[in-house]
Every structure is written in C-alpha cells, then in structure tokens.
Amino acid sequence: MEHGLTNKIRARCKLDVSPQIEFVEYRSKSFIIVHCPKGPHAPYYVKGYPKPFVRRGSSNFEANDIEIAQMYRDSSRISYDRTIVDDASLEDIDLKAAKRYISKRKKSKEIAKEALLDILRKEGILCRTRDGEYLPTIAGLLLFGKDPQSCLPHTAIKADAKYRGSDKDWDAIATFEGNLFQQIKQFDEFIIPHIRVSAKIVGFKRIEKTEFPIEALREAFINALAHRDYGFIQGSIAVRISDNSIEIASPGELLRPLTIDDLKRGEFEPVTRNKVIVKALVEEELMEERGTGFIRMKKLAKEYDLERFDFKEYMGFFKVTFQSKPLWGKEIEKKKILIPDETLKALDNDQLKILEVLEEKEKVKVVDCVSQIKKSPITIRRKLKNMVEKKILEVVGKSPTDPTTYYILHPRFTNRK
What we know:
Blueprint: H1 2-13, E1 20-26, E2 29-35, E3 53-56, E4 59-62, H2 65-75, H3 95-106, H4 113-123, E5 126-128, E6 134-136, H5 138-144, E7 157-164, E8 169-176, H6 180-191, E9 197-202, E10 205-210, H7 214-227, E11 238-241, E12 245-251, H8 260-265, H9 275-283, H10 293-303, E13 308-314, E14 317-323, H11 330-334, H12 341-345, H13 349-361, H14 366-373, H15 377-389, E15 393-396, E16 406-409
Parallel strand pairs: 7-11
Antiparallel strand pairs: 1-2, 3-4, 5-6, 7-8, 9-10, 11-12, 12-14, 13-14, 15-16
C-alpha cells in the first residue's frame, strides 16, 4: 500500500524524488504523513496558483520575480556564466591576456586570431551570434575583461574593516574592481594589513602568528568569486572585518541539491553554477576542482583554535564567518614579548638564556638563573645589571644582593602600560 501511494503522489505532483510515507496513530486516530524532499528542478507550481511558494520563517509566501529567477538559474544544467552580456562587445575583452591563458594550456604561443576566438568560444569565454559576431559572456568579462564593472556593476566588491583597540584604530573602506584575478590581489592587499599579528620569543626566535589563517580567508574569498550567483544583480560580495571576526558574504545560496548539512559533513560532490570560471581558477591553481575548499578551511580553523568557523544561507546569500580567540591564549597575550632582532643580537648566550627563563616565569631572581644557566651568582648579577642598563630588564627590589629582588621585562617589550 505504501509503495503504491508513494508512486501515485510522485506521479500526481510530478516530483523528481519519491516522497516518504509515514503512518501514525495518535489519540485513536490514523494519520498519513508525507515527507516531500526538496527537488532539484525548482520552481514547482501548484495547480490554480500563478506563482510558486517559498518559505520565509514559519510562513509561506508567493515567490517574487527575483526569487523565481534565482530558482530557474539554480536548477539550470547550463553553466550560468556562459550567458552573453548584451551591453558588451569583443573590444571589452583583453585578448592578449586571454591568449596567454590559452597558450599556457595549449603550450603554443602561435595562435591566429580566428583560431583564438573559436577556442574562446568553446571555452565559454565568448559566444558567437547567428550573424557571426563574437560577444563576451559573463565569465569572459570577469576573467579577461578590460573593465568588467562597466557592464557588470554588481561585480564590484565592498570591503570594510572596523577595529577599536588600545594600540591601533582601523576604519577602512575599499572597493575591489577589475577582473577576478585583480580582485583576488586587491583582497590580499586589503586583508593582511587589517589582521592583527602577535609575536613572542620561542627559543630566542621571534615567532609571529596572524589572528586568522590567511589561507582559509583567501579560500573563502575565491570560493565566493567562483560560486556566487552573477544573475543576482541586486547584491554584491561583501567582506567585513570587525574586532574579532571576519565575514565573507556572497549572493546566491548553495546550488541544489547541495545543502549546508552536506558541507558540514564533508559528504558531497562539488557543484557550481559557474563552470567556466571554476575551470579557469583551477587552471591558474587558485582553487581545486575537487570541492575540498571547505575541508581545508575547517582544518585551518581548528589549527588556529578559532572561537567559531561557520557558514550559513540567509536571504539569498551564502556567508562564511571566522571568529577568533585572543592571540596565543589569554595568559601569553598579557605577557607577549616583542624584542627586536637588533636588540637580541647585542646579547650574549647567557643573557639569551636569561630571557628564556624569563619567558617561562615572567619574573626571575638571581637564584633562578644560577640553577638554569650554571653560572656563579656574581656572573649572573653582572649580566642582569647589563640588561637593566640596556633597558631590556627592570629590577624590582632593594638591592641586587637582596634575595627577594627580582627582574622583569622592560615595559617597552610588552603590552603593559
């Protein structure tokens, strides 16, 4: 009975995937619950209604024109970035840059113009009209356009950084324009100066660590460029940096049947609405075709012990969020050592060992250094005195020979005020 009912529902409603039927007894009454999976070929229409319905919160609404258009784009089996840009012409394409890209793959620099145009057509960079005219596609403009934003203004990317701290104040706004390769470079140039860096001495070596994994941020940004919905002209990719988080939001939810849960489990086959763009970014070794980007980002987030690494869909956008913890941990952050290399070079081996002891204990006495360095108290006091004179250490106590006297780093090498 269940199998027959399933087939009837599937045929009547023209579903792509069979529904699941559940029979439930409740308060002496029998109920049939039909679980209809989300189909990959939206939109679906109900007889008698001119528009499909969408779920917003806990209510159902008729989809607006923008939502319906997005459904058609997402369910299309044709790479959307192959769409012709009507306002553009062949003059808008940098054919020299396109030729370098093709020549690298073909391993030949001798490509005649007509042959090049035909290759670019096959690659989805150009389209040929019935009258023989070559016109750029969305992918063509974004990859090799001289000024893509003149025809596709929604592909400009907005970035802002706002941070209020005791040592630095940031408040920067930027717009990334140009082709995708130029936008990646602009992202790198913007993001690195606006990420805090902590440093400490480990074994006399200065070790620096960025607050966020740069590689993961770059991966998230390139994914946004590769997979965003370029037909969604009302929105743009946005990069937002705040005190302890970075968000990268791009227009276009995941391409169905891929879901957020699939991404989190890492169990999915890579899909994209922009096959031409993805292929070019893979060819240029800026991303991998296998869909391992989120796995790498998750791994890097774990290595950096981020407070949160998350991704979600909302209002037609896909957003990735990185949220940090204090650099090096709370205790080390309070005592972080920032000693310039030129200062370290002026110290002898025993004095460098004193710094190593100090890193472990925060404050040291003569007896601590004697036991660790195996030198006489007189020698240790002389070396400590020299470090105080060089304003590397501060002495706290009545006199160098007082057993309660101890030494700490000079405030100029810590974040103490």
